[in-house]
Amino acid sequence: MYSDDRIREEASRIEHGGMGSLGTAISEAASSVQRRIEEFREQGFEKATEEVVQYVRAQPLNAMLIAAGLGMLLGILAGVRRR
Hints:
Elements: H1 4-58, H2 60-82
């Protein structure tokens, strides 16, 4: 997971470096996602569950806000489908 400092560094690099740095940042993010997918395939659902539990324990407010946002999004999508 990204820490706040890493996110700020990435944003600063993108802001100061222009489009070239943006492409680099996107490539790095894509490779990071690919690595995480491979880890998930190798270690399975248990590892992902363990990481989610650790995140929720470390940052309960953020976890609640994420869950509320996802619930609201799903509710909106379900409401749109019924119309």
